[in-house]
Design goal:
Blueprint lengths: L2 H13 L3 H11 L4 H4 L2 H5 L22 H9 L6 H13 L5 H18 L17 E4 L2 E4 H13 L3 H8 L4 H9 L2 H21 L2 E2 L3 H27 L2
Parallel strand pairs: 1-3
Antiparallel strand pairs: 1-2
Bound molecules: adenine (ADE) and zinc ion (2 copies).
The site of one zinc ion has 4 residues, from α8.
GO biological process, one term: DNA catabolic process
Protein name: S1/P1 Nuclease
Pfam families: S1-P1_nuclease
C-alpha cells in the first residue's frame, strides 16, 4: 500500500488495541502512533544500508497453486520474503532479551508488513514483479496493476487516512473474531487468490474505466480492515 493505506491500517489497529497493548506500544514507540510509524519501512528501503529489507515487503509464487501447495512452497522458501519477515518481527517483539532499538524496528516492520501482506499484489508473480510490470489504465491515466492497488484506488477516493479508517472499520464483532483466528499463511493465500482475479481482469481488458473502483471498493476496504484488526489481535496476544 501507499502512505494513506498503511496509515489507515495503523489507525484501525489502534481502535482495537487492549489497554495493555496500548501501553506496550507506547513504551516502544513513545509519542509516535502505529499510524505514523507504518510507513517507515518504505522510507528506508531504498537506502543501501537497508537494501536487505526490500524483499521483506512481498512474496512471489507461481500461478494456480492449491492452498496446500501454496502453504508448502511459502513455508519452505529460502529467500527472504514477507512471510518470513513477519514471523521474525513477531518473534522479536515477544523476545525480552532483544534491545529497545530492536523492539522499535520489529514493531515498525510488523505494522507495515501486516499491511502489505493484505495487499493482493504483494503475493503476485515474479515475472511481472507483483503486477509492477503490468501496464493498465485507470480512466485513461497510465499506471500499473501493482501501483493501482498500492495507492491509485485509494487516492481516487480522496479520503484522508483517518476518513478511510473510519470507512473501513465497520466490521461485525463475529466476523472480526473469525479473521483473528486465521494465521499469517492464510492471510497471504487470501491475497494470492484475490490477485488471481485482478490479473485475470487486467489480462481481459487493461483499460479500466469509472466502474473499476466501485466494483473493487469492497475488496480494498475489507483488506484494510482485516489488516488493522489482525494487527491489533497480534499485539493484544503478545501483551496479554
Ligand atoms: N515490489 C517490488 N518487487 C515486487 C515483486 N516482485 N512482487 C511484489 N511487490 C514488489
Ligand atoms: Zn511495503
Ligand atoms: Zn506495493
Amino acid at each position: 500500500w501507499g502512505v494513506i493505506g498503511h496509515r489507515a491500517i495503523g489507525k484501525i489497529a489502534e481502535n482495537h488495541l487492549s489497554s495493555k497493548a496500548k501501553k506496550a506500544v507506547q513504551d516502544i514507540l513513545g509519542s509516535e502512533s502505529l499510524a505514523m510509524v507504518s510507513t517507515y519501512p518504505d522510507e528506508i528501503r531504498s537506502y543501501q544500508q537497508y537494501s536487505y529489507t526490500a524483499p521483506w515487503h512481498y512474496v512471489n509464487l507461481p500461478e494456480g497453486l492449491s492452498y496446500d501447495d501454496f502453504n508448502a512452497q511459502l513455508k519452505s522458501m529460502d529467500k527472504p520474503n514477507i512471510y518470513k519477515a513477519l514471523l521474525q518481527c513477531i518473534s522479536d517483539l515477544k523476545d525480552a532479551s532483544k534491545t529497545k532499538e530492536e523492539h522499535i524496528f520489529a514493531l515498525k516492520f510488523l505494522v507495515h508488513l501486516v499491511g502489505d501482506i493484505h495487499q493482493p499484489m504483494h503475493t503476485g508473480h515474479s515475472e511481472d514483479s507483483g503486477g509492477n510490470g503490468i501496464k493498465v489504465k485507470l480512466m485513461r491515466k497510465e499506471t500499473n496493476l501493482h501501483g493501482l492497488w498500492d495507492s491509485g484506488l485509494i487516492d481516487y477516493t480522496g479520503l484522508s487516512y483517518r476518513e478511510l479508517a473510519a470507512d473501513c472499520d465497520v466490521v461485525e464483532k463475529n466476523e472480526a473474531k473469525t479473521w483473528e483466528k486465521d494465521d499469517v499463511a492464510k492471510w497471504a493465500f487470501e491475497s494470492y487468490e484475490i490477485s488471481k482475479q485482478l490479473y485475470a481482469e487486467a489480462a481481459k481488458n487493461p483499460e479500466f474505466d469509472y466502474s473499476y473502483y466501485p466494483a473493487h471498493a469492497d475488496i480494498v476496504k475489507k483488506r484494510l480492515a482485516q489488516a488493522g484488526i489482525r494487527l491489533a489481535a497480534i499485539l493484544n496476544e503478545i501483551n496479554k
